[in-house]
Amino acid sequence: MIAPQTYTQLYRDTLLNDVIPFWQKHSPDQEYGGFFTCLDRTGNVYDTDKFIWLQARQVWTFSMLYNRLGSIPLDGTPLEQRADWLKMAQHGANFLKKHGRADDGSWYFSLTRDGRPLIQPYNIFSDCFATMAFGQLSVAMGNEEYAHIAKSTFDQILQRRDNPKGHWNKAVAGTRPLKNFALPMILCNLSLEIEHLLDQALVNQTIDECIHEVMDVFYDPDLGLIRENVMPDGQFSDSFEGRLLNPGHAIEAMWFIMDLAARRNDLALVEKAVRITLDTLTYAWDDVHGGLFYFMDSKGHPTQQLEWEQKLWWVHVETLVTLLKGYQQTGNPECWVWFERVHAYTWAHFPDPESGEWYGYLNRQGEVLLPLKGGKWKGCFHIPRGLYQCWQTLTKL
Amino acid sequence: MIAPQTYTQLYRDTLLNDVIPFWQKHSPDQEYGGFFTCLDRTGNVYDTDKFIWLQARQVWTFSMLYNRLGSIPLDGTPLEQRADWLKMAQHGANFLKKHGRADDGSWYFSLTRDGRPLIQPYNIFSDCFATMAFGQLSVAMGNEEYAHIAKSTFDQILQRRDNPKGHWNKAVAGTRPLKNFALPMILCNLSLEIEHLLDQALVNQTIDECIHEVMDVFYDPDLGLIRENVMPDGQFSDSFEGRLLNPGHAIEAMWFIMDLAARRNDLALVEKAVRITLDTLTYAWDDVHGGLFYFMDSKGHPTQQLEWEQKLWWVHVETLVTLLKGYQQTGNPECWVWFERVHAYTWAHFPDPESGEWYGYLNRQGEVLLPLKGGKWKGCFHIPRGLYQCWQTLTKL
């Protein structure tokens, strides 16, 4: 076993000297505001559409880093350089505030470069990431307007949560009333993100509900895994959607749960989250080529997702976070063994030392499938958040 | 060069002795009617949802084969065996007629096994394939009710064509008003399918419009290829959708165009379709592993489609049809050279001699990605139609 401290410097330096500078250099749109996120291998912009998920996530990332690291001593990263992080966050927030919302306050899915709406506000996760962005930035700035945007968006999410897609929902109501894992999973995290803006009773109630949904309703004890879609009462639906497993989603949720459990000193909850993580890893690890599959079918049938066997950046970096938090909170040596295995695969395949930042999409064999650093879904979020979380957790070991 | 006649027997026998019997044996749902289309490698049912595209396409396939082959001498396939084809078509049509339509006459996207609606009628291609199915079956049966279903569905398609997704459309009207290649491409084919039910002036007008759309509007002469999405006036949109190329779609459309050109004795149109086919093949052929890519970007940028590099059954079988028709109509030797190359790749990778029928989804390397014979999108359609078209065209060489 290599000492944990060996890894600390790698995660820290990659965050501060590679990933964050890459986005600072290549993503700001100085003409129209906001960020370019479609960046090729070397950082050239290959498409100018602005996706609200990624605009908001980048605002969040720079705000979060500023809030956590903006004023503490940090070798080699002077304070004025970190003040630029706050400017980046404000740059994105201005664009979002000006162009991001429809008349009813819900957030569009995407905009043109100059801010005209392209895709309607059908996707509630646009609202989730906007809440995170303005919540973090309101802390950094002490800005009441930003706080209000975060709070009012959060209130709308809670109102929309039972039918988030509204009239864009293609499912016939009642025939197969499945509910999806993503929203309760994100609400776990979101309620902590804007805790400073919420009534404490609402925070506690939301957290209680989310933990119950994730660990009791979506977790299938017979299968030993978390399902992506279940019937309203948590029962299994033997359908494509009901059989679907999204291992990266499940493992990412486990570190949200571990954070909540740590806050409550609930060791049993941490232990359960660690068990689910390890069982998911065993199930979803590709024994032939290494790495974690993107989608699986709980009965081993073919998935509808043609990309099921691909290896994605966020799946792997979120897994590293979960394993380190699990190890830190329980000392379970299986977490460390798996951390070293996933670390080795991840660092051998995703980073691009030549041009900076990380690739996002690999084929099953671990070769680069799309030579992009950013696109419609990959932006300045999972890699920097994951590197930050790993770095911080490693320093506690 | 191997003589064309060498291939004829292979295409014929595979259709009549392998593919059609596979669907006859494994797909009928004797309890609730209609067809199972989610069939694993050996034909076992792994999911029971009923997708209107595939229900209708299977009705069409069995009706078409009955109409073309039902009463002619055919070695080794007695007449009574072919009468079963008509029973299969009726079996599917009964289910569709009973359960397939919403109150306004539009066709749902999918149903449960017992016919309850699952996914709303947001997808106009459900209606297109229903039209084809009932149009062909009305010929076989001389059935007025089937003819009426085909005709009224076709009329609704024409009414919906400018906004086919209705309120399920997520694009904000006006910002980037792209139109998609699939509908004009299918209307080319559809108007001939139900010609017997339409006013001749409407048929001619629809065909004229479709040829113009496909060959002038979606074909980009500077690029030398057909685009999947263009601005209303045919101009290029430098966006993910605007840069998208779908080589299999373009090549499939070329044999619809060749059929229309043959009907009009328009040799210049055939020659143009052959040129587009050959240029698309040169552009989309994978020089490393063989086979045709599924999606590409006209500027060489990363696509949004993670499955871009995969090799799909329909792309390859439709290409074989186009190349043979092009060769038959023009004698261009490039068509035959490409036919032999695509034939060799296709027959080496897609058929499954052990369990019958063909695989649908291969990875870039040509290995089986999903070991299914049928699913949400692959049913009893492209393979039998392609084998039939190739067989018939080969006999004319």
TrEMBL record, chains A, B:
Family: Belongs to the N-acylglucosamine 2-epimerase family.
One MF annotation (Gene Ontology) recorded for this entry: isomerase activity
Keyword terms of this UniProt record: Isomerase
Highest rank taxon of the organism: Bacteria
Originating organism: Spirosoma telluris
GO biological process: carbohydrate metabolic process
Name of the molecule in the record: AGE family epimerase/isomerase
Presence of keyword Isomerase: yes
Coiled-coil spans in chain: none
Pfam families per UniProt: GlcNAc_2-epim
